[in-house]
Amino acid sequence: MLSDDAEQEAKMSDEPNPEKVPQHIAELRALIRVSERIVVFTGAGISTESGIPDFRGPNGIWHKLTPIDFSDFMSSEEMRKESWRRKFSGDMKMVNAEPNAGHRAITSLVKAGKVTHIITQNVDGLHQKSGAPDEQVIELHGNASYATCLSCSKRYELADIKEPFLQDGVIPYCDECSGIIKTATISFGQAMPVEEMHRAEAATLACGLFIAAGSSLTVYPAAGFPRLAKQNGARLVIINNQDTDLDSICDLVLHEQIGPTLSRAVD
After folding, report:
1. pLDDT of the residue at 12
2. Which domains does the chain have, with CATH numbers?
3. pTM of structure
4. Which DSSP letter does residue 223 get?
5. Are 120 and 200 contacting, i.e. CB atoms less than 8 angstroms apart?
């Protein structure tokens, strides 16, 4: 149920005018207008609108290719080699992807001072590519655009790893500490990043409106943040093309495309 202020905003938006918007857009627009300290939580659904295939869906990547468990990556040089082979032999959809209208709408809310943080399950870096500041994007599952040493955390660019690997099958090791280098993503079986989880929790507890966009809300502990926000008194909005387990506790649910929906709501 909308707050009194948001309901009044929605009614005003629904009055006859040459730019009348659908009721669900008016309601979302009203919630954004009356809310301070908004947190946006994004999942694969926003990235699929940029042409990036999802991982867990019916036609997702992991239905076609079994993911490599973190323990196997750490214990087996052959698994590390296979992981890098997959990384460099796959298609370039993620590398070449561009932010869509949804990313740009969220970034506009960040720049307007409405959105304090973007919490994302995605690893494509499209929020930053759309102009969102690094410090306001919390990447729960890491970032696929670079690699890090698992021992000393030194950053490595993929281009510096790719050429020697494709030429001679050379598995990268850190030139500082000889540690194992891995793409900066969180693999199956790998612990969630402690700092990012703490930052996401703090942002969630401080928000007045929590918008979850494009997430099935089935992957925990990340999917627990929308429920935490609601339990802490924030209003909760879900934008997703399918039902989620949290729809029943939401203030507003929109089964719509994210880009067009958010674009109209933030106009």
Report:
1. 45
2. 1-11+22-52+98-141+191-267 (3.40.50.1220), 58-96+143-185 (3.30.1600.10)
3. 0.88
4. T
5. no
Question: pLDDT tens digits for 175-211?
Answer: 999 999 999 999 999 999 999 999 999 999 999 999 9
Pairing of strands 181-185, 142-149: antiparallel
Q: Give per-residue pLDDT as tens, 97-142.
A: 999 999 999 999 999 999 999 999 999 999 999 999 999 999 999 9
Q: Please tell me which residue in 24, 127, 141, 255 is annotated as part of the active site.
A: 141
Tokens of 179: 């540690």
Active-site residue 198, yes or no? no
Cβ-Cβ contacts under 8 Å for 171 (sequence gap 6 or more): 77, 80, 81, 84, 165
